[in-house]
Amino acid sequence: MEFIQIANLTLPVQHPAIVIALFGAWLYARIQYGKSFADQFSNAAFLFVIVWKLSIILFQFQLVLQAPMSIVYFNGGIYGFWLGLAAALLYTYVKKMSSLETARAWAAIVALYPLALSALTSTWAIWVIVQAAGSILFFFVAKEGLERALVLLLFWQLLFLSAEGLLFGTESLVYIIVTAYLIIWRKKYE
Question: What are 154-179's pLDDT values in tens digits?
Fold first, then answer.
């Protein structure tokens, strides 16, 4: 795991990459769908980050009692990450956000995350560009059918994760769960 230092704060490089991808997806949503959807998307993204960050109180309560500043420096770990993702997905469900718009914002996150990760670690490879370019094809295939485009995007990402030996990791599970959620949600409510 690589780390990045921002002032006095040292973070795993994945954290700022997630924030960059979320910001890029918000910017895409703002330009493409307007203020209302972008606000809902940013609320879901903010909820994800806040729940993930503050879940340390839930999962490491003794540590927080002994060192309250740990809230600033640590997060809820993998359990907090899943809790944050569940909170964000629940928010999109409760707000009945459009599945097409949400899926396209998700595709923007999926396309931007590997690019942000490569930029932050200065490890550019041609396959990162190919991965991002393939992810961008989602926007063209989505016109033919959202479910097909989501499954294609999922398998495209899993292909690259398997090449890195990360097929059975958290990132793969996130792709699978969010894709399944978006497909089931679309079939049920639209």
Answer: 999 999 999 888 899 999 999 999 99
Strand (E) or helix (H) holding 6: strand 3-6
Number of C-beta neighbours around residue 132 at 10 A: 17
Structural domain including 163 reads: 3-189
Q: pLDDT tens for residues 133-145?
A: 888 888 888 888 8
Q: Which of 106, 154, 162 is nearest to 134 (CA)?
A: 154
- From CA 29, how far away is CA 33, in angstroms rounded? 5
Closest CA to 127 of 165, 169, 167, 164: 164
From CA 101, how far away is CA 89, in angstroms rounded? Answer: 14
* pLDDT at residue 113 in the model: 92
**Number of structural domains found in the chain:** 1
Q: Give the integer Cα–Cα distance in Å for 182 and 100.
A: 9
Helices (H), 122-145: 126-136, 138-141
Listed in sequence order, the residues at least 6 apart from 74 whose beta carbon sits closer than 8 Å to its beta carbon are: 56, 60, 63
